[in-house]
## 1
Amino acid sequence: MAHRINHVAIVVEDLDSALAFWRDALGLPLSKTEDNPGEAVQIAFLPLGESEIELLQPTDPESGIGRYLAKRGQGMHHVCVEVDDIEATMARLAAHGVELINETPRVRPEGTRYAFVHPRSASGVLVELYELSRA
Ligand code: ZN
């Protein structure tokens, strides 16, 4: 079952300029920034209620997110929905004819399992599924 939005990810050209709105003007706390060389992004995490805003700044114009920024400009990149059982959720989606980008869940270093649903199947929105590590 899906039970909350884990985060909303926004692609930005420059983290400092983006933080001038999200942190300084709007007043969200900045909990941390993280370099993710694997996906060629720097990420700023701003908790908001039970969820987070993630600002993604590509560090390589040839990466997936770098090309996205060049083509579509800044804006919302994906919504991440937290689920209890990612395999059951993916099986349910597949049974509904939903197109998944990842056939099997991928795993982050801290143990979160994740997969993406193609925007073609999700009202034009890239949807990420998260199953948090229970450890
Ligand atoms: Zn995400």
## 2
Amino acid sequence: MLIKNRQDGFNHPVPSDITPRDVYEGRRDMLKLLAGGAAGAVLSSWAARDAMAQTAAPGKLAALVGAKSSVAGAMTTEKVSDYKDATTYNNYYEFGTDKADPAKNAGTLKTRPWTVEVEGLVKKPGKYGIEDLIKLSAQEERIYRLRCVEGWSMVIPWVGYSLAELIKKVEPQGNAKFVEFVTLADPKTMPFVGSRVLDWPYVEGLRMDEAMHPLTLLTFGMYGEVLPNQNGAPVRIVVPWKYGFKSAKSIVKIRFVEKEPGTAWNKAAANEYGFYSNVNPNVDHPRWSQATERRIGDGGGLFAKRRKTEMFNGYEAQVGQLYAGLDLKKNY
Ligand code: MTE
């Protein structure tokens, strides 16, 4: 992001160099799926069939299957991106700045034991072990577009539940106006923590109504399995109408605060990355246009036909009203 200045913001082999695997041929290891001991997985028989049909993963990680979501806007019908693309073309700067680095380096991330601390302006603060957090509410599958500020996008079947479920349980106080997400910064296992690329830990935040919006997903899995490390294991958020960098990975603290939290990218370059970061084709990044995007997997590399970027990444009907009256040019 900050340190790159080409149109696409990357200097990695183009996605067409990555051989797409046939992950959507419909073959999946049913036994693995049904073994689904991964805590809290909700596995109805139709969900298993559905997963068979749509979400073939490599079968290396523990199954985590959710029932198809009924939340409005949660299930795009666009072609889902190849698992290989979604797990080898990543931004996770703690493990390096090249798109291929997280897949290469994130094996060192230790995801058990893992605790998420809920603190700040809540009536019921506490520490949640990851297994308890996974079980806190029923898992759903959500097929969301994820649009990176760099100008590329993917379609990913995430598994999790609305962050609102957790927020309701911890009972925010009246003066809690924002939710801050603090992620792991462990120099022993994360080779780039300590580099000057960002001010660690990676921190993101949402306004309370954004955090409570049913589309905001507390995410534990993708493609019917637990999250691979490079995608933010064991828990991240996914906020589909905002640029990808709002979707903080490997969260260790969820903090309820009164004032807008300082976020990692905003601290690094305030004129480029605002707090809101809503996908908005009408507000250019200072160094490139945001009018179009390249769907990873479309082929053609840098010369691929680009798609028009939609307002709020296509989720305007669901979230547009959150920003009524807000000047989106100023609050980018
Ligand atoms: N979270 C942490 N902790 N560190 C990061 O560098 N990168 C962000 C976001 N979350 C990032 C992060 C950015 S820029 C993007 S586009 C998305 O993760 C990418 O998510 P994905 O690799 O699962 O597609």
## 3
Amino acid sequence: MSSFPMDWYQNGSLRSSDASSNAAETDEKELDFSKVDKPRGLERCKSCEVNSLSELGKDGENSSHPVDHLENAASLLPNTSTNTPGALVLDPHPHPIVSEGWEALRRSLVYFRGQPVGTIAALDISDEKVNYDQVFVRDFVPSALAFLMNGEPDIVRNFILKTLRLQSWEKKIDRFHLAEGVMPASFKVFHDPVRNRETLIADFGESAIGRVAPVDSGFWWIILLRAYTKSTGDTSLAELPECQKGMHLILNLCLSEGFDTFPTLLCADGCCMIDRRMGVYGYPIEIQALFFMALRCALQLLRQDNEGKEFIERIAKRLHALSYHLRSYFWLDSKQLNDVYRFKTEEYSHTAVNKFNVIPDSLPDWIFDFMPLNGGYFVGNVSPARMDFRWFCLGNCIAILSSLATPEQSMAIMDLIESRWLELIGEMPLKVCYPALEKHEWQIITGCDPKNTRWSYHNGGSWPVLLWLLTAASIKTGRPHIAKRATEIAETRLLKDNWPEYYDGKLGRYIGKQARKSQTWSIAGYLVAKMMLEDPSLLGMVAIEEDKHLKPVLRRSNSL
Ligand code: GLC
């Protein structure tokens, strides 16, 4: 991270003597929080109306799926169709970890000129070289949800507005100007001792290791704006011209036309939570699922003015193509696996069955044992002659929450998690990806990354933050006992180990080699999971119902 505060500020654009830094001082032009309308009703608004393409004037159909009306999520408890041991009994007395967690979360608050604007990535910043002293956009999401669920939306509003201002600044890396819509990966508050004034410093990827692009930040920002609106019932924030513009800029970036033959979004490695080289370049499922979810959230938030309407049309078209593509080509279950195994290659024309010319010999050995008879998931990546068969947790959970996964696919994902409990949950939830890259593969794919050695960090490490996503997905599929059991496992260690960032080992038994302690999203992820288990109606904040207009093309195979 460069530590340059702003040198000067001109025409609303940031200039700095260090061309590679994106530091900024907020001055009088800064959007004043106090001038923004306070939420009209601050009580929790738990309802989750059906918001879908049907909002575009088409009639919604009544759905028979049990979770189509998320406000009824509470009625999903308890669930009986389970093969996971441990019945669901809600605890009337909060676990002692909960109060400790809240204290730790509050300690992580970051203030800018007296206002809370985010949470620090980790309070344990013993190693000065690293950038855990910053507010990361993706890391703040679980914190924001915890505050929203606790009826404290102000910090979330402040964060949304502050990051919006950062988006509007000129962004430059070396001599290259970044696109207008790019949201920062992270920012921090810098105290300028000379002027005795606080300034903000943002990182758009130029200071991150490997100069990785934070493609997920803009998507999380839109998803958070929708969560805020849903939970407070306050539509005035999203309706602000500044927020509409921020959304337009993000959408312009990801909806723009190029040379692509796929509706998915082409990305470089390290563009998301996995922000180091891990072979996720191409069309990583994490980004595709977040893209899909952000588009669906944007549909609910965009104003129907001229510009808004244009975006709504573009989004509708893209969602159609995107859901078709992902549900057809990224989905893998035992039937699909068998089909790939028997694929012919070198097929041309529209009649090709093996559309991407995936060579069956590229199927890794582990997949045949990993794939249960009942169950399936969205694979990590699909592009010409390349299917990355690895399981990635975040993308699959977001696929469930956004209803990118059909109800059958959602159930199959949860079936897979239950069948592969040891591999994916083990002794600490949850594996960020499975399996680990080892030996030669690790050398070639990670570039010999010493932080991403096998079963560590992004390479098969276990990340407690993912608990909130698993919990939301479990509740949405009517199987909260899965999350309950995983949460109980996490509770045996999280506080004792001082909220590590990640755990290592096949079972997640060991505190990660280089894991920070007091990692904020580990704390917030746990708290959000607990709150949702207590009150499943909170799910509406982070889940979207199935859109009947996005016709499923691929049902779970009949053989299941
Ligand atoms: C690591 C993680 C990234 C996270 C950051 C801050 O770089 O890989 O996902 O945002 O730490 O916690």
## 4
Amino acid sequence: MCGIIGCVGGQEASEILIEGLRRLEYRGYDSAGVAIIDNGIVQIQKVKGKIADLQKILNKLRLKGTIGIGHTRWATHGRPSELNAHPHHSKDITVVHNGIIENYRVLVPILKKKGYVCKSETDSEIICHLIQMYLDQGLKMEKAFPKALCQVRGSYALAVLYEKEPHRIYVAKNASPLVVGKGQGENFVASDIPAILNQTRTILILEDQEWGFLEKDNIRIFNLKGQPIRRSLKTIQWSLATTEKDGFRHFMLKEIYEQPMAVQNTLSGRLGNGHQRIDLPELEPLFPRKKNPFERIYIVACGTSYHAGMVGKYMMESMARIPVIVDLASEFRYRQPVLDSRCLMVVISQSGETADTLAVVQMARQKKAKIVSICNVMDSSIPRISEATLYTHAGPEIGVASTKAFTAQLVVLSLFSLFLGDLTKNLNRKDVISAIESLSKIPSQMKKILRPDAVYQRIARKYAHCPSLLYFARGINAPIALEGALKLKEISYIHAEGYAAGELKHGPIALIDEGVPVVVLIPQDEHYDKTYSNIEEVQTRGADLIALATQGDKLIPKIAKETIFIPKTQWFLSPLLFSIPIQLMAYYMADYKGTDVDQPRNLAKSVTVE
Ligand code: M6R
């Protein structure tokens, strides 16, 4: 989604803005632009395409201004073009925007009648005209800005320059993320923390329906009624290195390799009493007197996080015997779900900003359901309105394709399920201790799978030209088959479908023909024989089998073209290990095809609009 950066202070703005835009690139974009106040005049430069092209222009211009705003645009309203790129401009006002102004179609003709004509096809442009209109009516900027905000419906994160106040950046937020960074004699604004982490670690997070302004030595925040807001600053602990590639070709590959550490960090401090007990103090207020007050659990998420939720259902139902319903946030919010205070709502989101998931949390709050979120980004919007948050400690995830955040979500879901199993007495002490023992081994088992292996390059060479791949598995690994297909589609643009193996005969087997690549996940669990029968069915119809099997399996290599061995673990932890080869397979296929692995076309890292 669109990214915003802004700076006011001592350093030349053009360098800071370009560096900030680079750090926002991972969110996905099709055009970029900046506005810098140079010698009192707003200079706007925009390009369709890459930030490097924008940088070339700025290098030639050599602007010396120390205040500016920048934007990466991910098109929603209006095609990708220079005209539609931000900043947008109306006489004295220049604006960058992330979000969607839902009532812009109503506002465009009203503004036009008054002589404020939109030149672009975007919803965003109306914002600068609205503010300008109020300024022309004689209001001061500190009144005109919030008045304009009250006229727009929808989501916005905004950074605004007013040529008559060339020492200030105005900012505002509603349902799209925006953070302010406090420096020494300079201040910053950005869509997310990594964009300004090289400048400052002191952050102020704006809340919905707040606006304010930044000057060199001053940050002021207000609500829409104009009342000042006092908010404490946060110090960010993560290191900048976690947001850089560290010698890997892509962030995605680096993040795949970071999984043992991400799992370790997510477990850290949660295995209590010398690895005898699950410690999740965040959940205690929801389970008074260590009893379960909930009749059912909903797990709601989007994309990869939804697949984690599907795995969570297998774990929770089996360990805690509580009914679990898993749904896509984009569907759930428009259904009439039966929600009340007896429901526990578990929402999963790496970014904590996904618009549909956030809307589900708001809806569940109204219905008095209790909300536990599983998020990776600290203090993002979803944790801020949840009763409890179980953070995954995967570190910043930059690659658009989610990898380490996914496996960290699976770790949290397994801890949560064990916690519930213990609480409901469906698990005994021995079960919990043995589960903890297996969990603790996961990082070292992951490292074994992550050994550099020619198999993925060979698979890529052999199958990257194929029009389509099928993935299948049973039980708790069926969602991993879906995740494997999603990973491949999003970064390699090769069509792929994932199925629960039992569904093959109900349709997909018709796709099997000579040489069709089929990826099967077959751990040695209770479903082994049934999945093996499915393997035989596709193999006799000519499929090329790529199998992920348990270490020591003698049968599978005889029937599969390629076998990748996975160390043995308990059933509920096998998705953690089986996820890694499907990520590597997708990565090497995409890299072989030469796609933009970290920023695949049309995709954005955090989907902050519907
Ligand atoms: O930040 P979230 O976990 O809420 O994001 C949900 C999806 O947009 C995300 O998982 C998406 O499917 C990824 N690109 C998958 O790799």
